[in-house]
Amino acid sequence: MSTSGVVIVGGGLAAARTAEQLRRAEFSGPITIVSDEDHLPYDRPPLSKEVLRAETDDVSLKPAEFYAEKDITLLLGNGARSVDTDAKTVTLADGSTLGYDELVIATGLVPKRIRSFPDLPGIHVLRNVGQSLALRREAADARRAVVVGAGFIGCEVAASLRRLGVDVVLVEPQPAPLASVLGEKIGELVTRLHRAEGVDVRCGVGVSEVSGDDRVRSVTLSDGEQIDADIVVVGIGSHPATDWLEGSGIAVDNGVVCDDAGRTSAPHVWAIGDCASWRDEVKGQVRVEHWSNVADQARVLVPAMLGQDAPAAVSVPYFWSDQYDVKIQALGEPEATDTVHIVEDDGRKFLAYYERDGVVVGVVGGGFPGKVMKVRAKIAAGAPITDLLG
Ligand SMILES: Cc1cc2nc3c(=O)[nH]c(=O)nc-3n(C[C@H](O)[C@H](O)[C@H](O)COP(=O)(O)OP(=O)(O)OC[C@H]3O[C@@H](n4cnc5c(N)ncnc54)[C@H](O)[C@@H]3O)c2cc1C
User: Fold this and answer.
1) What is the domain class of 113-234 according to CATH?
2) Which of 87, 100, 157, 338 is the residue whose CA sits 20 to 30 A from 234?
3) Three-state secondary structure readout of 295-362
4) How far is the CA of 274 from the centre of ligand 1 (A)?
């Protein structure tokens, strides 16, 4: 490689993990992280949890000294605007150009907004630390929040706002929170958890209008009901941050299209993390939006880039979500369409096995960390569900 080295575009977990992994693999050339944010690469899970609840402000993945020690250059507050894959250059927001030998795209996601909503103070989305702090500031004086969308982030925000003493209405067009990911049975247990904490959970209904004056004042549901609100949080999902790749020729289709090691359609260009759609032998292109997937991908991408032997891909994916005192954990690949066997339920905590074609494909626990982890080997082995159910 020439002196341009590896340029990583993105300032989050995927960028940091890629850089770390490169140094761990004894890559000694230049590494440059280019981020449109002013912060050191930081962790996002606490944004809807500890940061929102004002329990911490420190979310940096590593201190500045780490990057200095490892000779990793950070170009912060100067995002990438375009890439020229023939010239092997990236143009940044300030007009400067950076050459690369290998380029890694790690730009994450942009939260979706509801276009018909007016642009009023008090309407929030949550993806970065500034947005978390802004929501926290407003929550301090708020009486009632409407959270639109009961996916993981919506549910976590609802839980954190309740802990801050805010009344919360959680609005979800599906029959239950998390139903599209984990199925209705688990969704109902999650509804029960939130209701027990005083959240007004409204399922099977959407939001048709938001109104206010100098700030948001009320939300009208699709069934016509009007709810007063000081805060509206929109948690309806995100799309990959790939607009800056337009015209580059790099294939994008619900994320940057990659092979099973993160290679994109352009030579010497790779993609990783939430913005990347990696090829899976069985499922085709898959884009994962979970934390532990990032390190798993870095352990495959970096050796592929350096021409080293890669470890076998991780066979048991994992994610978690903290809601109140209940850690919801999923191992394997549970899907809403699987047969769900609830094997523990104490009225708050729960454990469920997911079965597909007679085989255990996943486990989801709420408040049962040890029992979730015990199922890993069965999932990895593709064991029959009867092994677990007896
Ligand atoms: C509020 C919240 C809570 C979460 N909680 C959990 C959880 O409990 N469990 C779990 O498994 N996962 C959780 N996740 C998901 C997890 O955080 C992500 O999977 C992880 O952050 C993905 O890392 P990434 O680097 O791909 O993307 P990101 O962390 O989003 O980083 C992308 C970075 O690229 C920057 N960028 C974008 N465009 C450009 C550009 N053109 N030029 C330069 N920089 C650019 C962005 O500003 C950002 O800094 C949560 C996510 C959020 C937002």
Assistant:
1) alpha beta
2) 338
3) HHHHHHHHHHHHCCCCCCCCCCCEEEEEECCEEEEEEECCCCCCEEEEEEECCCCEEEEEEECCEEEE
4) 7
